[in-house]
């Protein structure tokens, strides 16, 4: 059973998400929070697998709450809720430790699939949305360099794999591009995460943009 915590200052949004998630046999909503501070407190009590985290909330916003959860509950995955066109802080939320994001008008099936994907340890990287969003932020403002090691610690194949991830390719697509098996790509991905100290694919994309492995125009 995947345990989910809902954090949003709009009660109707929380109620709608709860109804959708609890209709699934494998998903359970363990709590609701109207602001980031309550979300962190409830997460400490309930240790959810996934937190659906709004960005704009009173007292403590979603970015600060995500950063704190990544520190105190690293096993809990954070899925950010955004209106996309209006939220200029999504990049900050991802850099703070979120594993991906959802649009607030997400469909029922996409919401359920996203929670399952993130709970399974994957990042929610939709190439047509996430990559565009990250590219927009990198293009529009200076981005602080991460404290991760330099790219020179990677082998040539590992760097190629990182570039393909940042372009939004799945493991299977990267395998076809590199003419190797999907298992080999998974090994390269694991090595990239380990060597660079990255949490998941979202943060691999951030690293790739920050270090010039891909450019916003690519």
From TrEMBL:
Domain of life: Bacteria
Ranges for domain HTH luxR-type: 147-212
Annotated Response regulatory domain residues: 3-119
Modified residues (4-aspartylphosphate): 54
Record keywords, A-Z: DNA-binding, Phosphoprotein, Transcription, Transcription regulation
InterPro entries on file: CheY-like_superfamily (IPR011006), NreC/VraR/RcsB-like_REC (IPR058245), Sig_transdc_resp-reg_C-effctor (IPR016032), Sig_transdc_resp-reg_receiver (IPR001789), Tscrpt_reg_LuxR_C (IPR000792), WalR-like (IPR039420)
PANTHER family xref list: TRANSCRIPTIONAL REGULATORY PROTEIN NARL-RELATED (PTHR43214:SF24), TWO-COMPONENT RESPONSE REGULATOR (PTHR43214)
Protein name, entry field: Response regulator transcription factor
């Amino acid at each position: 059973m995947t345990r989910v915590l809902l954090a949003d200052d709009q009660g109707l949004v929380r109620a709608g998400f709860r109804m959708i998630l609890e209709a699934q046999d494998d998903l359970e909503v363990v709590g609701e929070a109207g602001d980031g501070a309550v979300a962190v407190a409830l997460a400490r009590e309930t240790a959810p697998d996934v937190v659906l985290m709004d960005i704009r909330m009173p007292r403590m916003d979603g970015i600060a709450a995500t950063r704190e959860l990544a520190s105190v509950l690293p096993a809990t995955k954070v899925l950010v809720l955004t209106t996309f066109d209006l939220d200029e802080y999504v990049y900050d939320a991802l850099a703070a430790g979120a594993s991906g994001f959802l649009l607030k008008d997400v469909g029922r099936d996409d919401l359920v699939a996203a929670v399952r994907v993130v709970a399974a340890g994957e990042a929610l990287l939709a190439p047509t949305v996430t990559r565009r969003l990250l590219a927009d932020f990198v293009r529009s403002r200076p981005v602080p360099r991460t404290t991760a090691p330099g790219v020179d610690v990677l082998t040539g194949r590992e760097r190629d794999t990182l570039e393909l991830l940042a372009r939004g390719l799945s493991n299977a697509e990267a395998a076809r591009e590199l003419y190797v098996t999907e298992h080999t790509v998974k090994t390269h991905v694991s090595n990239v995460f380990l060597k660079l100290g990255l949490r998941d694919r979202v943060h691999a994309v951030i690293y790739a943009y920050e270090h010039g492995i891909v450019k916003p125009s690519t």
